[in-house]
Design brief:
Blueprint lengths: L8 H4 L12 E5 L5 E6 L6 E6 L2 E8 L2 E3 L9 E16 L7 E15 L7 E8 L2 E8 L8 E7 L2 E3 L5 E4 L13 E4 L5 E2 L3 E4 L5 E7 L7 E7 L2 E6 L8 E4 L2 E2 L2 E7 L2 H5 L3 H4 L15 E6 L1 H4 L15 H14 L3 E4 L28 H10 L3 E7 L4 H17 L4 E5 L7 E4 L5 E4 L4 H16 L3 E4 L15 E4 L7 H4 L8 H5 L43 H10 L4 E3 L4 H5 L2 H9 L4 E10 L3 E8 L5 E7 L4 E6 L8 E9 L12 E9 L3 E6 L4 E8 L2
Parallel strand pairs: 22-23, 22-30, 23-24, 24-25, 25-28, 28-29
Antiparallel strand pairs: 1-2, 2-3, 3-4, 5-10, 6-7, 7-8, 8-9, 9-20, 9-21, 10-19, 11-18, 12-13, 12-15, 14-17, 15-16, 16-21, 17-18, 26-27, 31-32, 32-33, 33-38, 34-37, 35-36, 35-38
Helix pairs in contact: 5-6, 7-8
Length: about 700
């Protein structure tokens, strides 16, 4: 590994210059020179702008922040100094989309002070990569900002343009991040979660998000005026947005930029802006595939609570363990195993006990049985977002998981946004936002406590991913979007375009536990298993072909992938199931090859263990013919391609199971032509020949 720090020649003459009497502008360019950031103090305001090959991406936009009881950084500011640097390093992920990540960027740190008035300062540190721009606020310890700092507003703006096309989910709604992606001119959007993705009139694609969200409130986008967004932070119940003290840094605000849609996927900005691994040896963090007592509950074959169809029984769990062992799966997720699920668990989070199992679930016996089969139980902690109840039991709960051989825990926070329960030292109940500073602190506490016991965390209903998996590699996956369960009972279910939307929006932030692999594509049309039971609405179903379900294992990245359907449905289709058994989850390299947002996407990944390549592609409601260059394969080398593609008459509505499984020999550098049906896709495994 090599690191090179050097001044940028164009900026060296102004490094740490005194504050000028007139407006000053500084410029930072990406290593390839295509992206430019301009920073200014014109009009006494801290501002920035971003361009790509001379064309505007972010118009002149304001920077700054306000505090409750101290002077903030809004007006009367001047550039007091600047410093520059450059870095080009490689670092290795213990697991991830690619093993080796390159961090190449140029940096400009600009310090702003009031031109007159109280002596206080703020530095804004910019980094320009070939795939985008980032910046963060750094407020050092200083005499003018003594004691507690209550941040009331972050004034960061993003001038994206009124007519710029925007793909987003709303941020001020009850269901956290779990909304279908919407498309609109940016000027018509009131509020949005990040990542939010854009395409402007010049055909430039960009995405706004954040990185390294630590002890700060999450950022969403709030429309100030048409086409101009301001950072909106989630406040404490009855309090400020962020509680801090001088000597703090904000998360990085990120703007990924590319000339095409897949360029956004092929970027490592978010990871590069996070600190290196703090946990040391993390060989105990284990990517892999799992099955579980989960989908059966969503389609009403089983239930979480104690009744005639309780899913988390010793007998049923052993059935899943046996299935996992037979087919090479590493884990079995069990939901509904502990006390608290009976009755209205959604509104009774204070009843959950994370150390006591249901009477029909022998947790210690199952831990032993799983390990004897070479499988591990995956733990589950649903909290109903009663944070105080969970934190009061956290140490003991993780101790139990460790004792029975659990290496991964799925956490859950099912509650309306703004209803996370915090009970203070006086016993007063408060309600906090899912993405507030309080919850950011909580999730990190869970990850750290789990790490002490060599346990990884897969958080559902989480705070969005901002790349902290680099710093805490046991933060192995998250949810944070509409997953597969909506196809069992959602109104409406996920449409055919959903996964092609996720690839360019939610997935830019990091891995998602989407839980693919449904083989019974019309589960609510089956007769109920018990008398007096009712299936869900038959229109609730995965709006995909069977081939697309296989493709999702490559397209939607997660180091832990679930084979989400029932064991019997896989045993009924062993030929299709073979791809799920073969596909890897930990990658040497990943390359997005082609795609358009919400239309289609094709991604190739090389397995870290086998060095075999896998290719997956999915389409929206339209049939598509793709011709992809196999440029990711070694040129001239022959490969045996195992292909799982839509049949000639496949259609998600009328014939979702029609699939052709075939083999043929291809050569690296060839064109690979495949047709995708409406709601379809394909998956390929490339095995080197000779």
């Amino acid at each position: 590994m090599t690191t090179h720090w050097k001044p940028l020649i164009a900026l060296a003459a102004i490094a740490w210059a005194a504050a000028p009497a007139h407006a000053e502008s500084l410029t930072l360019a990406s290593p390839d020179g295509k992206i430019t950031v301009t920073v200014s103090d014109d009009g006494g305001q801290a501002t920035y702008a971003v361009s790509y090959e001379g064309k505007q991406v972010i118009a002149l936009s304001k920077l700054g922040m306000l505090f409750a009881e101290h002077h903030g950084f809004e007006r009367g500011l001047a550039i007091a100094g600047s410093a520059t640097a450059s870095q080009d390093t490689n670092w290795e992920q213990p697991w991830g989309e690619r093993r080796v990540v390159r961090d190449q960027h140029n940096e400009l740190a600009v310090t702003f002070k009031p031109a007159d008035g109280p002596d206080r300062q703020m530095t804004v540190r910019f980094r320009a990569f070939d795939t985008g721009v980032s910046f963060r606020y750094e407020v050092p310890e200083q005499a003018a900002l003594q004691g507690d700092l209550n941040l009331t507003e972050e004034l960061t703006q993003f001038g994206v343009g009124e007519q710029t096309t925007m793909w987003y989910t709303p941020s001020d709604e009850f269901n956290r991040y779990e909304y279908l992606t919407r498309t609109a001119p940016a000027g018509k959007v009131d509020d949005a979660h990040t990542p939010a993705t854009f395409k402007n009139a010049d055909g430039i694609y960009f995405s706004i998000h954040e990185a390294a969200l630590v002890d700060y409130a999450a950022m969403s986008l709030d429309q100030l005026r048409p086409g101009n967004f301001e950072s909106k932070l989630r406040g404490w119940s009855g309090g400020p947005k962020v509680k801090t003290r001088a000597g703090f840094t904000s998360p990085w605000r990120t703007i990924q930029v590319a000339p095409d849609a897949v360029g956004l996927i092929n970027s490592d900005i978010i990871l590069n802006l996070n600190e290196p691994n703090k946990l040391g040896d993390v060989s105990w963090v284990e990517p892999g595939k799992y099955v579980g007592i989960w989908w059966a509950m969503h389609i009403r074959d089983r239930s979480w609570g104690r009744d005639q169809i309780h899913g988390a029984t010793t007998e049923e769990t052993k059935r899943y363990i046996d299935f996992a062992a037979k087919h090479g799966f590493a884990g079995v997720l069990v939901e509904g195993w502990n006390i608290g699920w009976d009755g209205d668990w959604y509104n009774n989070g204070d009843l959950f006990d994370f150390t006591k199992a249901m009477p029909d679930y022998d947790i210690e016996e199952l831990g032993r049985y799983a390990l004897s089969k070479g499988v591990r139980i995956i733990g589950h902690h649903e909290t109903s977002a009663n944070i105080t109840n969970y934190e009061n039991q956290l140490g003991a709960a993780m101790d139990l998981m460790q004792k029975v051989g659990v290496r991964q825990v799925k956490t859950g926070y099912v509650a309306d946004a703004g209803d996370a329960v915090r009970i203070d030292e006086n016993g007063v109940r408060h309600y906090e936002w899912h993405d507030s500073q309080f919850m950011v602190r909580h999730h990190l506490k869970v990850v750290q406590e789990a790490a002490k016991r060599q346990i990884s965390i897969n958080a559902h209903e989480p705070v969005k991913d901002t790349g902290l998996r680099r710093t805490y590699p046991n933060w192995i996956a998250r949810e944070g979007a509409r997953g597969m369960e909506y196809n069992a009972w959602g109104t409406p279910p996920n449409p055919p375009e959903h996964e092609a939307m996720l690839a360019f929006t939610r997935m830019l932030s990091g891995p998602m536990d989407f839980t693919p692999g449904i083989f019974d594509l019309k589960p609510n049309e089956r007769p109920p298993l018990r008398e007096n039971m009712q299936r869900g609405d038959p229109s609730n179903r995965p709006e995909t072909t069977l081939a697309k379900q296989l493709a999702l294992y490559v397209v939607l990245y997660s180091p832990i992938q679930m084979a989400a359907d029932l064991p019997e449905n896989y045993e009924a289709r062993p030929d299709a199931f073979q791809f799920i058994k073969d596909v890897e989850t930990d990658w040497e390299e990943s390359i997005a090859l082609a795609g358009e947002i919400g239309d289609y996407v094709a991604i190739a990944r090389q397995g870290r263990k086998s060095k075999e390549w896998f290719l997956g592609a999915v389409s929206d409601e339209e049939a598509r013919d793709l011709s992809l260059p196999l440029s990711f394969l070694e040129k001239g080398k022959k490969y045996r391609a195992q292909i799982y593609r839509d049949g000639p008459d496949a259609d998600w509505k009328t014939n979702p199971y029609a699939m052709v499984i075939e083999e043929k020999v291809v050569t690296g550098g060839d064109l690979f032509a495949v047709r995708m049906a409406p709601g379809g896709g394909f998956a390929v495994r490339f095995i080197p020949v000779g």
